[in-house]
């Protein structure tokens, strides 16, 4: 599958190393666990998540008298799938209108992900409008227009760099007039500094609150998986400026750093909503914890 293909480098990096130590150690002992710890930490799993995995393995080994190192991949899989599922938020299917504000630093794949998300939602039968409110980047607006044409979704943009707030305002009026299910707003919400970001977002929230109070608002942060630990730092900083409800983890294809998904969810307690596994319009998938873990460890 596309997911397995996309995660193949991450899988190769992690499982090959783990398999090597499985073959060189028959028994799960301290030396084995130390080597495992090192592999996990250097595979972008993060210190906190790694130590928790090791702790879980020790518990299970003791409780179930497991000795054979061949069991280790199953233990890791169980731990990670459970951890991801604990942090999942089960959204109730509702008919309420919804706004998704999309934030993220330049280059992470924000524009592309919005296009793909619009396509996905539209294909699933939702009516979608996109607001090109990242008005500072003319090229990004043009790119977003192209994605929206391909997705067959209406896009609201402004002429020559007017205020993002006025784009949001116009988009809300369209969404209300057409009774759209989902309004996806690209935003200039990026991290120059925290105060700046908070100001930009609070302007948008104010307009949404005033003009579109019937809609629920989600904030999705886009993170580039290829940046590894940097993604965690970004997520922490954004999280200090606004409440993030979901993550879009992009560029999982072609990176060995896909393990970053785990510490991001664990340390930030934000669920991953979508993952990007390629550059085509249908290369955005909804995140499924079990599938993701299996694609890496099976
Ligand atoms: P923005 O600056 O955050 O809006 O980033 P863009 O959406 O323009 O994306 C930057 C680059 O990353 C583009 O070349 C995209 O094609 C690429 N990109 C985005 N998402 C993915 C992904 O999931 N996989 C791959 N391979 N490339 C991606």
Automatic annotation (TrEMBL):
It comes from Sedimentibacter acidaminivorans. GTP binds at residues 104-111, 186-190, 250-253. It catalyses: GTP + H2O = GDP + phosphate + H(+). It comes from the Bacteria. Part of the signal recognition particle protein translocation system, which is composed of SRP and FtsY. Signal peptide: none annotated. Gene3D superfamilies: P-loop containing nucleotide triphosphate hydrolases, Signal recognition particle SRP54, nucleotide-binding domain. The keyword Nucleotide-binding applies. Belongs to the GTP-binding SRP family. FtsY subfamily. It is a peripheral membrane protein. Involved in targeting and insertion of nascent membrane proteins into the cytoplasmic membrane. Acts as a receptor for the complex formed by the signal recognition particle (SRP) and the ribosome-nascent chain (RNC). InterPro entries: AAA+_ATPase (IPR003593), P-loop_NTPase (IPR027417), Signal_recog_particl_SRP54_hlx (IPR013822), SR_rcpt_FtsY (IPR004390), SRP/SRP_N (IPR036225), SRP54_GTPase_dom (IPR000897), SRP54_N_sf (IPR042101). Its EC number is 3.6.5.4. Residues 271-284 form the SRP54-type proteins GTP-binding domain. The gene is ftsY. The lineage of its organism: Bacteria, Bacillati, Bacillota, Tissierellia, Sedimentibacter. Keywords: Cell membrane, Cytoplasm, GTP-binding, Hydrolase, Membrane, Nucleotide-binding, Receptor. This is Signal recognition particle receptor FtsY. It is found in: Cell membrane; Cytoplasm.
């Amino acid at each position: 599958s596309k997911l397995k293909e996309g995660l193949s480098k991450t899988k190769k990096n992690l499982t090959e190393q783990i398999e090597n130590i499985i073959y060189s150690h028959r028994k799960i002992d301290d030396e084995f666990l130390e080597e495992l710890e090192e592999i996990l930490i250097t595979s972008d799993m993060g210190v906190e998540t790694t130590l928790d995995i090791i702790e879980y393995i020790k518990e299970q080994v003791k409780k179930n008298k497991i000795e054979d190192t061949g069991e280790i991949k199953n233990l890791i899989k169980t731990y990670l799938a459970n951890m991801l599922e604990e942090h999942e938020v089960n959204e109730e299917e509702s008919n309420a209108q919804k706004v998704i504000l999309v934030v993220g630093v330049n280059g992470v794949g924000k524009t592309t992900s919005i296009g793909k998300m619009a396509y996905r939602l539209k294909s699933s039968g939702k009516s979608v409008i996109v607001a090109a409110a990242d008005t500072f980047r003319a090229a990004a607006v043009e790119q977003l227009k192209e994605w929206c044409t391909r997705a067959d979704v209406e896009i609201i943009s402004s002429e020559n760099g007017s205020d993002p707030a006025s784009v949001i305002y116009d988009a809300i009026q369209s969404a209300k007039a057409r009774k759209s299910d989902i309004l996806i707003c690209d935003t200039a919400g990026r991290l120059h500094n925290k105060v700046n970001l908070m100001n930009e977002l609070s302007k948008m929230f104010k307009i949404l609150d005033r003009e579109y109070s019937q809609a629920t608002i989600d904030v999705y942060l886009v993170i580039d998986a290829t940046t590894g630990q940097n993604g965690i730092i970004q997520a922490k900083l954004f999280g200090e400026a606004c409440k993030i409800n979901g993550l879009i983890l992009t560029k999982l294809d072609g990176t060995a750093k896909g393990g970053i998904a785990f510490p991001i969810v664990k340390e930030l307690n934000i669920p991953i909503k979508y993952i990007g596994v390629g550059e085509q319009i249908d290369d955005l998938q909804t995140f499924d914890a079990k599938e993701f873990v299996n694609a890496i460890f099976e």
